[in-house]
Automatic annotation (TrEMBL), chain A:
GO terms for cellular component: cytosol. Pfam families: TBCC, TBCC_N. Supercomplex made of cofactors A to E. Cofactors A and D function by capturing and stabilizing tubulin in a quasi-native conformation. Cofactor E binds to the cofactor D-tubulin complex; interaction with cofactor C then causes the release of tubulin polypeptides that are committed to the native state. Keywords: Acetylation, Chaperone, Cytoplasm, Phosphoprotein. Belongs to the TBCC family. It comes from Xiphophorus maculatus. One of its GO terms (biological process) is tubulin complex assembly. Residues 148-172 are annotated as: Disordered. SMART domains: CARP. This is Tubulin-specific chaperone C.
Automatic annotation (TrEMBL), chain B:
One of its GO terms (cellular component) is centrosome. Pfam families: Arf. It is found in: Cytoplasm, Cytoskeleton, Microtubule organizing center, Centrosome. This is ADP-ribosylation factor-like protein 2. The lineage of its organism: Eukaryota, Metazoa, Chordata, Craniata, Vertebrata. Mg(2+) binds at residues 30, 47. GTP binds at residues 23-30, 69, 125-128. The keyword Nucleotide-binding applies. The keyword Nucleotide-binding applies. Its main location: cytoplasm. One of its GO terms (molecular function) is GTPase activity. Keywords: GTP-binding, Lipoprotein, Magnesium, Metal-binding, Myristate, Nucleotide-binding.
Length: 346, 184
C-alpha cells in the first residue's frame, strides 16, 4: 500500500509537473507568435517605407494615363491648326511618346503582365492616331521636282523672284533656286560659247545637253558639272573643288581642279590639272594629258581657286570598275606626247 | 534582363561604338573623317575602297568606317552593315542634281534589317558653299520626317571649316549611349 500510495503521489507530482510544463509551453508559443506577428508588422512597415512611391502600379497607371491624355490633347489640337503649329505639336507629341515608352520600359519590373499589355496596347493606339494625325495634317509628299516645297521657297527668297512662267511650265522651285545659284549653258548645238571670269567666279557652272559646241570658261568657278556633252570642246579655268563629267562622248575637255569624277563617258580626251586624284567609272576610251590651255588671267585664277599649280596628278587615274592591282585599266590611256594638242585658239 | 543585361554590360565595359559613314560620292565623307581627326583635308582623293579610323572622344572609342560612295562601290556597302551603332549619312548640300539619287539610296538603306537599330545622323555638308541648300530644304527633299524606324537628326555642317561636326557627333554619341549604355 505504501508503495502504491507513493506511486500515486509520484504520479500526482508528475501530473502536476506535466500540467505545469504544458502551460509554460503554451505561454512560449503565444509569445513566439506575438514576436512573429510583430516581426511581420515591422517588416511590412519597412517595406512600405523603402518602396519608392513611383514603384507602385497605381502611380504608374495614373501618370501613364495623364501623359496619354496630354498627347491625345496635343493631337486633337492639331486639327485645323496651321502648318507650323501642327509640325511643332506633332514634334512635341512624338517626343512625349518616346518618353512614355521609356517610362513604360522602366516600369516593367514591377508591373503585372496584364498591366504591361494594357499599357502597350494604349501606346500602340496612340502611335497609330499620331501617324493618322500626321498623315492628315501634313500629307506625305513624295518628293518630285515639281512639288512646291516650303524649304525651296526659303532658298528662292534671296534671288530675284522667279517668273510665273517658269512655275507654270513645271520647273521646280528647287531647280529655280539652283539656276539662280548656278550658271552655264544647256540645250545648244553648233555654237561657240564663252563665259567671263565675273560670270563664273566662285559659282557652280553647269553645262548640259551640248552638241558640237566650243565652250570657253575664263575664270575660277566653285564646281563644274558637265552632263550629256557630245562632240564638244570644253575648256575651263581652275575649279576650286570638283569637276563632274557624266555622259560625255567624242569630246575634248581641259580644266584644272582639285578632284575629277568621270562617269559614263566614252572616247573623250581630258587635258587635266588635278591636285588630288581623277577617277573614272563606267567609262571607256578616255585619255588623259596634262592641262596646257592658257589665257591671260590664268595665274590669277589659279591663286583665286587655291589650287597648287605645282602639283598635278593628271596621270594617276583610279578606275572604279578596275580594281585589279598590277594590271592597268583598259578603260583609260595616256595621250602620247606627239598626239597632244598644243594650240587651242587660232 | 538576363542576356540583354549581360550584353549591355559587355558593351559598357568597352564603351565602344561603331559608326558607318555613307553617302553619294563627293559628299565629303572622307573630308569629315579627316577633319574630325585633325588631318589635312586638301589632298583627299575619291575613296577607292574604305577608310577606318579609331578615335577617342568623350571617353568613347569610336570606330568610324568611311566607305567610298561611287556607284560601283555602293553594292559593297552592305558588307559594312553588321553591328553598326550609328549611321552617318553625308549629303553634298550643293549637289542639287543628285538629291533624288541621294533620297533613294538613303531610303533603301533604312530598310536594311542589319541597320535596324542604328541611330541616323544626316550631315548636310558643304554649308560653306554659296549654292548649298539649307538643312531644312534637305530635310524636306530627303523626306526625313517620314522616317519612323530610326532615331534621326539632321545637322548642317562644313567639313572644310569644321563647323558643326562636333555637334553632330555629340548628338549621335548621346543617342547611342542612351540606347546601349543605359544604367540598369
Amino acid at each position: 500500500l505504501r508503495i502504491v500510495s507513493e506511486y500515486k503521489k509520484k504520479s500526482e507530482e508528475n501530473g502536476f509537473y506535466d500540467r505545469n510544463a504544458a502551460a509554460k509551453l503554451h505561454e512560449r508559443i503565444e509569445k513566439r507568435q506575438q514576436v512573429l506577428a510583430e516581426d511581420v508588422e515591422r517588416r511590412k512597415e519597412a517595406r512600405q517605407s523603402q518602396s519608392v512611391a513611383e514603384e507602385k502600379s497605381e502611380y504608374f497607371v495614373s501618370s501613364f494615363n495623364a501623359e496619354r491624355a496630354g498627347i491625345q490633347e496635343l493631337l486633337s489640337d492639331c486639327s485645323g491648326a496651321d502648318r507650323p503649329t501642327v509640325t511643332q505639336k506633332l514634334e512635341e507629341a512624338t517626343a512625349k511618346m518616346t518618353q512614355l515608352q521609356k517610362f513604360l520600359n522602366d516600369s516593367m519590373i514591377f508591373l503585372s503582365q496584364y498591366q504591361i499589355r494594357v499599357a502597350q496596347g494604349a501606346l500602340q493606339k496612340l502611335q497609330a492616331s499620331l501617324n493618322e494625325t500626321r498623315e492628315e495634317a501634313l500629307p506625305k509628299k513624295k518628293f518630285t521636282f515639281r512639288s512646291r516645297t516650303k524649304a525651296a521657297e526659303k532658298v528662292s527668297d534671296s534671288p530675284p523672284p522667279p517668273s510665273s512662267e517658269t512655275v507654270s511650265s513645271g520647273v521646280t522651285k528647287v531647280e529655280e533656286a539652283a539656276i539662280s545659284e548656278q550658271t552655264g549653258f544647256s540645250n545648244i548645238s553648233n555654237e561657240s560659247l564663252t563665259k567671263t571670269s565675273e560670270e563664273i567666279q566662285s559659282r557652280d557652272v553647269l553645262l548640259t545637253h551640248l552638241t558640237n559646241c566650243k565652250v570657253r570658261l575664263y575664270g575660277s568657278p566653285s564646281t563644274l558639272h558637265l552632263k550629256h556633252i557630245t562632240a564638244c570642246e570644253v575648256l575651263c579655268g581652275p575649279v576650286a573643288t570638283s569637276v563632274f563629267v557624266d555622259h560625255c562622248s567624242n569630246s575634248v575637255l581641259g580644266f584644272a581642279c582639285q578632284q575629277l569624277r568621270t562617269h559614263n563617258t566614252t572616247d573623250t580626251q581630258v587635258y587635266l590639272h588635278v591636285t588630288s586624284r581623277a577617277i573614272i567609272e563606267d567609262c571607256r576610251g578616255v585619255s588623259f594629258a596634262p592641262f596646257c590651255w592658257s589665257y591671260p588671267t590664268l595665274d590669277q585664277d589659279f591663286t583665286a581657286s587655291g589650287l597648287d599649280q605645282d602639283r598635278n596628278n593628271w596621270s594617276q587615274v583610279d578606275d572604279f570598275n578596275w580594281l585589279a592591282a598590277g594590271t592597268p585599266s583598259p578603260n583609260w590611256t595616256v595621250i602620247p606626247e606627239a598626239d597632244r594638242k598644243t594650240t587651242w585658239d587660232p | 534582363m538576363g542576356l540583354l543585361t549581360i550584353l549591355k554590360k559587355m558593351k559598357q565595359k568597352e564603351r565602344e561604338m561603331r559608326l558607318l559613314m555613307l553617302g553619294l560620292d563627293n559628299a565629303g565623307k572622307t573630308t569629315i573623317l579627316k577633319k574630325f581627326n585633325g588631318e589635312d583635308v586638301s589632298t583627299i582623293s575619291p575613296t577607292l575602297g574604305f577608310n577606318i579610323k579609331t578615335l577617342e572622344h568623350r571617353g568613347f572609342k569610336l570606330n568610324i568606317w568611311d566607305v567610298g560612295g561611287q556607284k560601283s562601290l555602293r553594292s559593297y556597302w552592305r558588307n559594312y552593315f553588321e553591328s553598326t551603332d550609328g549611321l552617318v549619312w553625308v549629303v553634298d548640300s550643293a549637289d542639287r542634281l543628285r538629291m533624288e539619287d541621294c533620297r533613294q539610296e538613303l531610303s533603301a538603306l533604312l530598310l536594311e534589317e542589319r541597320l535596324a537599330g542604328a541611330t541616323l545622323l544626316v550631315f548636310a555638308n558643304k554649308q560653306d558653299l554659296p549654292g548649298a541648300l539649307t538643312k531644312e530644304a534637305i530635310r524636306e527633299v530627303l523626306a526625313l520626317d517620314d522616317i519612323n524606324t530610326h532615331h534621326w537628326c539632321i545637322i548642317g555642317c562644313s567639313a572644310v571649316t569644321g563647323e558643326n561636326l562636333l555637334a553632330g557627333v555629340d548628338w549621335m554619341l548621346d543617342d547611342i549611349a542612351a540606347r546601349i549604355f543605359t544604367a540598369e
